[in-house]
Amino acid sequence: MLYDLLPSLICKALQSYDQTKLTEIRIRRNCPIVINYQGKNILLKTADGENIYSDKEIIEFILRKATENSLYAFNNQVKQGFITARGGIRIGIAGESVNSDNFMPKTIKDICSLSIRIPHEIVGCSNLIFKFICNEQIIKNTLIVSPPGAGKTTLLRDIARNFSHLSGTIFNVLIVDERFEIASCENGQPMLDVGVFTDVVSGASKDYAFTNAIRSLRPDVIITDELADENDVNACLKAVASGVKVIASVHANNLSELRSKTEFERLLNSKMFSRIVFLSFKIGPGYCQSIFDENMKCIYF
Q: pTM of the full predicted structure?
């Protein structure tokens, strides 16, 4: 699916790389193309060793392919700074924001940079962690803390899959996939393996999806990515108060950075999450560095 988005020159240059270790492609107008490979940023080169430069035509080509020739149809995503293409490939975009009278973005024009994030399925990457969050058919509210690119989405996807394979009980799992990245649904059907007992709500805010899905789908556990603000925190708290377990993720490099965010300090003080999992880049996507309980006692290191 990635190659469907890219011009042939870039596709040819990427063929010499192991696609399972490629996580990002940075396209900037009139600048060298940079890829993130095995956790390192490197210049993309031709077979002759020449740097490959992007230009306006390459950016427009990728946007046409990602939006199936209708950028307007994706404007709800564009004004939030991203496009999600088939297969869960998220393309971050930079350009000039066009604002309404109340300074809310209406769209982004003159797009000059693309950050293409490539999802991966690593079956079994959550097996160790799963023992700590679902033990003897009891699910623990879990917060995955991860720096960008350390594999939290990959891990959440495999956790959802493992509820169908390792839990020993049939749980109703709900994925709230705000940016189409965890399950990557196309025409309502997940394109990535999230387990056979999983329902997916795509493209809706966490607050809306949590509130309505709890009433209509009766999930035992909700899995969601990237808690960002107080609204997301409140959605989690309300879900747990309704008897639903929550497994979520948040961007942070460490505990002190997490605590520096007021809304998450409140979340930690509530002791809602009885499992707090820290990821790192040490080995690869989804690598578990440590696990703490609700009292911040380390239970795995």
A: 0.86
